[in-house]
Amino acid sequence: xxLLGREDLxxxxxxxxxxxxxxxxxxxDYFRRAALxxxxxxxxxxxxxxxxxxxxxxxxxxxxxxxxDRLLGRLSSKARAAFLYNRLxxxxxxxxxxxxxxxxxxxxxxxxxxxxxxxxxxxxxPT
Length: 127
Fold this sequence. Notes:
Blueprint: H1 15-45, H2 55-72, H3 77-87, H4 93-100, H5 104-123
Helix pairs in contact: 1-2, 3-4, 3-5, 4-5
């Protein structure tokens, strides 16, 4: 479905290889999202029963997590890691640069890419 929505879709030179690549990508996405869901459910079990969100809230949270995963999946692995280190772990630019083995200006670029993806998800492409 995603391919059908692309304007610049050209006929592949190797249709079988193209389909294999698509299938591998879909499997990778499926297993990554299944792992994400399992991690969420595991963490949910650690919350006292009286404080657990309702089933509807749990489903909404899980859908949000999947959307965030899809959004961050558009970033390179280093950009994704930098964004998560900054937003979830509260690390500064220098700490992130050291962990990723890149310069501080590169970390700034990665964070800008992450913020741009969030902006696009909320408001669409800037004009």
